[in-house]
Amino acid sequence: MADFFTPNPVDPDFPPVPRFPELPKRVDWRPEDLELNRLWWKRPQKVRILMYMDGASFDGGSFHGLQHVIGAVTSDPWPWAQFVVTTANRYSDLAADQDNVTLTDLNLDTFDEVWLFGISSDVGLLSAAEVTTLEAFMDGGGGVLTTGDHASLGRGLSGAVKRVKDLRMYPAPAAAHPVWNTTIRDANADGDFAFGEQSDSTPQVIRPRYTNHYSLGGGFVQLKRSPHPLLCAEHGVLKKLPDHQHEGQVTIPTTFPVSDWPKAGSYQAQPQVVAWGRIIDPSADNAGTEFPVIGAYDGHGVATGRIVADSTWHHWFDINLTGFNPAGTDYRDITSYYQNVAAWLAPAAKQAGMRNGVFWLALHENIIFEHRLAELPLRTLVPIVRDALGRWAPQCLVRAWLFEHLPIAVRTAVVGEAGPPRSELPLEDVVIAEAMADLQDRFDIRSGVLRAADKLEVIDEAIAAAVPRAAKRLLADCEASLESAQAIAGKLGAVSPGKAGRSKNGAAKTRGAKRAGIRTSRETADVS
User: Fold this and answer.
1) Which of 27, 138, 272, 456 has the greatest number of beta carbons closer than 10 A?
2) Hey, which bits of 279-367 come out as E strands?
3) Which sign does the torsion angle of CA 93, 99, 102, 103 carry?
4) Which residues contact 178 (CB under 8 A, 6 or more apart)?
């Protein structure tokens, strides 16, 4: 029976990962041993984060510190990553691990990420040596978070650093009514959008940017929308942030000189807004309008570090978090954002290690073990593999990890934003599924022997090898569906009898493959 490629516009948001019913446990496997013998896999990637500020305090002070954020990041939210935080303050701060230190006093080579909580608006705050040190850190693959607040707050730490300086507005709207960027929600319903309500339990609702792509699900190829990995968690899309009366603003430059924004061949990575906030206070000048609150730059494609820009550090400080119930869903969403930032900003090598850990863990899920993956049809195989991976990591992060393995030309051919993607083929899904089937065979997982992965790098090999195989398998699947559809059309008199089987050597097959950016089976499936 033919499979139909049907978009699904009724499902606009990225759904939580599907949960398949637990399958019967096999007596020769004893999945409970996986929990009892967790020592068989101890390979979390250690990601070292420097949190640096130029004022305030890490515990106390006028903003009450950053203990909620530090706790969320260091709580080991996933078994495949361990985030280690060092705190440093440019000025006196007894709560910091190091205080009265400059960036040149700190050895940035010992860190993977630098999170800047900038208070000062003095663009000359950093010395030339500090700027050079931080830029070298970024060019070497280190990730940077830049924050600030209204007007030019935050410019002191970020305003002279290439790329980073271009992702926040200086000056942003002032902390003055009615021109401010206020995201305060009137939790008391008294008509007063008061400053103190930033500390209550009512968050602002943000609008994420979605990327369109095709995915296999329910036996069909469906059009899906995924948020940026920063706003994706196991339970779905993250749409909440703490509110604040006068936020700063993320911005995207209009020009991208190569001196600041490097290229790899003809490809130039460029930043984008990944979420907007909305001003709803009717007394504000811009009531009802949106402004950018989170921006992201993925430099891994050009061998540099990633950047996350946030409109305000009030999305992070404890004064804006103390009102939330730690067991509530809003707090869960907000802390997931912090954890996603920590994971996404990690250098490319650490990203690969995290991805390999997730694949290895998912490989031992019951739903994987109970099947011989290489024998399953795509429509059955893909949902099973996505389910297993989704038990260990946010789906959008898994998808981002996969993109690291795809050539730039392929990445741009399979995604879309405003409209449908250029390709209707779910290449990413099939690469993941093919790689998992390969790993199941390589490690003989179904033998029932619990073993350690001495060389997780073999997962890199499996994913790389899966890319051309996935292209060929997708093409074969499309050809079979096309032949079936043509045969049915022939019976209905839509085409002449002699044309029903012409697809094997005809132009229709080639056009379909070319549209997907994949060569036909008569050519070499070269996507490397």
Assistant:
1) 138
2) 290-297, 307-310
3) negative
4) 283, 284, 285
CA 360, chain centre distance (Å): 20
Q: Give this prediction's pTM.
A: 0.86
Cα 232 from Cα 239, distance rounded (Å): 9
Tokens of 494: 């839509």
Token pair, residue 344, equals: 């996404």
> Which residue carries 């405003």 as its tokens?
418
Residue that has been written with the tokens 């499979």 in this structure: 3
Residue pLDDT, tens place only, 3-48: 322 333 334 444 455 444 444 333 344 344 444 444 445 578 999 9
DSSP, residue by residue, 161-186: STTGGGSB-SS---SSTTTSB-----
Q: From the CB of residue 372, how many other CB atoms can be counted at a distance below 10 Å?
A: 10
pLDDT score recorded for residue 218: 66
- CA 393 vs CA 77, 81, 199: distances in Å: 10, 11, 30
Amino acid at 496: S
Which tokens sit at 374? 């290489």
Confidence grade of residue 460 (pLDDT, cut at 50, 70, 90): confident
Secondary structure element (H or E) that encloses residue 275, with its range: strand 272-278
* Nearest CA among 210, 262, 260 for reference residue 238: 210
Please give the DSSP secondary-structure letter assigned to residue 241.
E
At residue 186 the predicted structure's pLDDT band, cuts being 50, 70 and 90, is: confident
Residue 448, pLDDT score? 55
Contacts of 420 by beta carbon, 8 Å cutoff, 6+ apart: 7, 212, 223
Classify the phi-psi angles of 86: left when phi > 0, otherwise alpha if psi is within -120 to 50, otherwise beta. Answer: beta
- Beta-carbon contacts of residue 184 (< 8 Å; ≥ 6 apart): 193, 194, 195, 197, 198, 204, 243, 244, 245, 281
Element (H, E) at 46: strand 45-53
Rounded CA separation 116/153 (Å): 12
For residue 7, give both structure tokens: 């978009």
Residue type, 313: W
Q: DSSP of 374-396, one letter per residue?
A: GGS-HHHHHHHHHHHHHTTS-HH
Quote the tokens at residue 78. 């996933």
pLDDT tens digits, residue range 207-222? 999 988 888 876 678 8
As a whole number, mean pLDDT of residues 60-80 equals 94
